[in-house]
Amino acid sequence: IHRGEITKCQIINMQVIESEISDTNFKELIIENGNFLNGRLVKIILKEIGIEKIGLMQTTLLNCEWPTQTYKISWRGKYIPSRYLLKQPVEDIIGITPRLRNEIQRAQLVDETHNECKSIFTKMWLWFWGMTTEYGRSLARLTALYAIIIIIMISLFIMYIPIEALNNSFWEYFRESCLYIFFNFIGVSTDFVAFTIGQEQNMLLVIDRIVGIVFIGLWTGIAANKIGSIN
Q1: Do the strands 93-94 and 59-62 form a parallel or antiparallel pair, or are they unpaired?
Q2: Tens-place pLDDT, residues 180-206
Q3: pTM of the model
Q4: Can you tell me the distance from the alpha carbon of 181 to that of 211, in angstroms, rounded to the nearest whole number?
Q5: Helices (DSSP H) in the chain: which residue ranges?
């Protein structure tokens, strides 16, 4: 088929073998259980033929328009899969660019993981991992969570103001508390603080340091992965 147009058509169990379709417009086309075997698709808008429902075994794709393949994670941690995600292995298709191939493979892996997830603990972990880092893709989300935890730690730290600190300016205490929590979080000594630390604050500092080690490790790992790869 060359420079044709197929509109308002439904095809069930379609088999296209060693054929070429190029510059063809598809409108309101529905294909159920279709297969393109050893063929060529040239300048085709792939979402119009429903690549998420058909097979493209050993098919060559040239200058085709791909629908979005990657997934999304909402700020509440909800997994939103691609509506047009390719369901077959990308190794069976010729003509996919290296970047698109990696994008499809990653989206397929995440989709398969979600579909096979049965344990409530695994689901909770996927939710938390997705919400905080988009499964290792987003430094912005991890940094935002880092800032939220710092604010919570500072608030709790200030709640336990020692008696001797009440004689000083509250804003001075607030400033030094912020510095104390922040530098403790990143593992820097904070001997410059002018007031005595209470037992409750010492416990907070231990928790703050442990969380800091975890977050810095995660941040460094994601950053190194982004620096070491082309996205």
Answers
A1: parallel
A2: 788 888 777 666 555 566 677 778 888
A3: 0.70
A4: 12
A5: 98-116, 120-133, 139-159, 170-185, 199-227
